[in-house]
Amino acid sequence: MVKLWHMSTGQCLHTSHEARQTLTAAYNQDATLYVTGGSDTKLNVYDTTTGQICKTCEPSPSVTIMDGHRFRVFSIKFHPHDNASFVSGGWDDTVQFWNTTSEHSIRKLNGPHICGDALDIDPHHNHVVTGSWRTEYNLQIWDYSTGALIKNVPQDYNNSLLYCAQWLGKDHILVGGCEANLTRIVDRGTLQTTGRLADLPRGVYCLDNNRQGNVPKFAAGSDRSLFFLDMKQD
After folding, report:
1. pLDDT tens digit sequence for 20-63
2. Is the distance from CB of 76 to CB of 25 less than 8 angstroms?
């Protein structure tokens, strides 16, 4: 089930019933379209005004062609400067690049094992950050245009398995995961951890930030709690 809400009034504007477990959704920048993904290989593109599916993106029938996902999808992100382009990631160890007008993906990059909302596009440098549910090479930075790997970010000493990853302003990365049940901030220049909140009640399965200024505020979810945090200005 997918519900579309009006934030200020709290009114449910539309409800869509999908014949699957829906695990992720994302709007484009002008909120005219949103895409959902989940426990199958299809990505449904919805028109916001009508609440109806206007396109279904999926792989080719041939399993020898990897132009879409082969397992469940956990993360979708639209490009911040392109209302028709988005990326997705999941259990099949690929990040797929899509256009809302095409049925199949236009290209892919291999490697990230994404099990949560662990995919984001940097509007400043056109870089993609991915977080993987594994102990090695679990936080990586990629070039959006070419799909080339730019950096493997060193693991924190707790060796957390990541469920969440996103850009935090233009200079940092925000991640969350399990094992150490933590959220941490990484400096994108030095790749060093500059802040962390560890030993939370359970793994961190969701986080987000307000994307305002160089010192954004952010929140992380663990167990039944939400932790609201911000960065200290140097």
Report:
1. 999 999 999 999 999 999 999 999 999 999 999 999 999 999 88
2. yes
